Amino acid sequence: MDFTALTVELLKVLNNITGSYGLAIIALTVIVRGCLWPLGVSQQRSMRAMQILQPKMKLIQERYKNDPQTMQKKMMEFYKENKFNPMSGCLPLLIQMPIFILLYAALISPQFMQEAGNSHFLFIDRIDKTLRGSAGTSYDGTFSVSGGDRFVVYKNVKIMLGDEAVEKSNIIKKNAVEIQGDIKSGETVDLKISLNNINLKFDELEKITGAEIDIQNMKTREVEKVKFERRDNILAASMPTNTPKGEFNIDILILILLFAGTMIVTQKVMMAANKNVNQDPMQAQMQKMMGTMMPIMIIFMFIIAPIPAGVLLYLVVSNIIQIVQTVVINKQLEAEELAKKGTRDLSNAKTIKPIETKTIETDKK
Predict the structure, then answer these.
(1) Contact 237, 191 (CB under 8 A)
(2) Are 160 and 209 a contacting pair, CB within 8 Å?
(3) Which residue from 70, 193, 218, 352 puts its CA 20 to 30 A from 160's CA?
(4) Which residues is 160 bridged to in the sheet?
(5) 112, 150, 156, 188, 243 from 238: Cα distances, Å
(6) CA 211, CA 226: separation in Å to the nearest integer?
(7) What does residue 270 show for φ and ψ, rounded to 5 degrees?
(8) Can you tell me whether residue 212 is helix, strand or coil?
(9) CA-derived radius of gyration, the chain
(10) Helix (H, G, I), strand (E, B), or coil: what is residue 177?
(11) How far apart are CA 101 and CA 111, in angstroms?
């Protein structure tokens, strides 16, 4: 099953509903976070429990530090006694990782680029753009190339069956384009397509003499109309090339900074929500340091890695939802804790015996 294609189809459906691929990504984020809400409650409940139980856990670790096997046994007994699962807080993150990978794969796929790669949203010029990219001019008869370029079949395909021209969509597999030899800017690039990748009947394949196909360079998003000639069992073509122009996209940098900002706010909200919980000072200091260093590390990673704008939009909206979720769930947990405390206080009050008083009666004479 092609999960990338399913993700693209889902985005198409959401685009038809919302009227924008940007809104479609936001809608997808809301759906995902909504499905994960119960796990979010479990995660925050686990985090609060961890902070409350941390001092006792530290005592066990110190007492049995010279006996790892006994320490592990005592820790498992401690978890069971307090009904605490240390791995429950990691589950939402583990589930979100495949979703992130699927969205990333969908937004850089030929299917999405051909369908909606040039879609813009708010200040974002293109949903599929990355921070650094290469630009080429489409339909100028020359491909702008560099090392590692990939070429795919674009929308328009015209197959020549003798003197007859046949135009069909999806007649050739999108990833059917192969490169012969190395790609060197300024030299011709040789492309070929095997007849096995053309969806025609056998007798029609035998009649193919050539083709005129729109080919896209995946790296530069440039599209050129390429004329192929038949050579044995392949369609072959050569195209002149030049050096692509580098570009730095400010709109993607803004998205990265927005992600970092929302991540910092998320960390602060989570720390503020747990400020009334007795917490190990070393752990509190470590969390504070991680809250500062993590956004810096992620910004650095996103500057180096080619993350599409649509994925960054997903992450920004996901962080905003996380902030709201943290506030709402922690208020719910605080209310539960207050209710439990009130029940315990009432129970303790009932166990206190009333003070007996004796009335001294005086004889009336």
Answers:
(1) yes
(2) yes
(3) 218
(4) 165, 210
(5) 26, 15, 18, 6, 17
(6) 8
(7) -70, -40
(8) strand
(9) 31
(10) strand
(11) 16
Quick one: pLDDT band at residue 227, thresholds 50, 70, 90?
A: very high
Give me the long-range contacts of 4-8 (CB less than 8 A, separation at least 24).
4/102, 4/105, 4/106, 4/109, 4/111, 5/109, 5/111, 7/102, 7/103, 7/105, 7/106, 8/106, 8/109, 8/111, 8/112, 8/115
Q: Give the whole-angstrom CA distance, residue 215 versus residue 229.
A: 15
- Tell me the residue type at 172: I
Mean pLDDT of 100-105: 75
DSSP-derived secondary structure for 293-361: HHHHHHHHHHHHS---HHHHHHHHHHHHHHHHHHHHHHHHHHHHHHHHHHHHHHHHHHHSPPPP--PPP
What is the three-class DSSP state of 179? Answer: strand
pLDDT of residue 90 exceeding 80, the answer is: no
Cα torsion angle, 229, 231, 233, 238, sign: negative
At 228, is the pLDDT very low, low, confident or very high (cuts 50, 70, 90)? very high
The two structure tokens encoding residue 330: 């922690």
Backbone angles phi, psi at 354, to 5 degrees: -70, 150
Residue type, 357: T
What residues contact 162, with CB distance under 8 A and at least 6 apart? 207, 209
CA 283 – CA 43 distance, rounded (Å): 18
H-assigned helices in 234-308: 250-273, 281-304
Q: Where are the domains of the chain?
A: 3-111+249-338, 134-246
Contacts of 166-173 spanning 24+ positions with Cβ under 8 A: 166/200, 166/204, 168/199, 170/199, 171/198, 171/199, 171/200, 172/197, 172/198, 172/199, 172/213, 173/197, 173/199
Alpha carbons 270 and 108: distance in angstroms, whole number: 33
- Residue-wise pLDDT for 23-66, tens only, equals 888 888 888 888 777 777 766 666 666 666 666 777 777 777 77
Q: In terms of pTM, does the model score above 0.70?
A: no
192 within 8 A of 208, measured Cβ to Cβ: no
Question: Are 185 and 243 a contacting pair, CB within 8 Å?
Answer: yes
List alpha helices for 64-200, DSSP H: 68-81, 91-107, 110-116
The residue among 365 and 302 whose pLDDT is bigger is 302
For residues 111 and 109, what is the distance between their CA atoms, to the nearest angstrom? Answer: 5
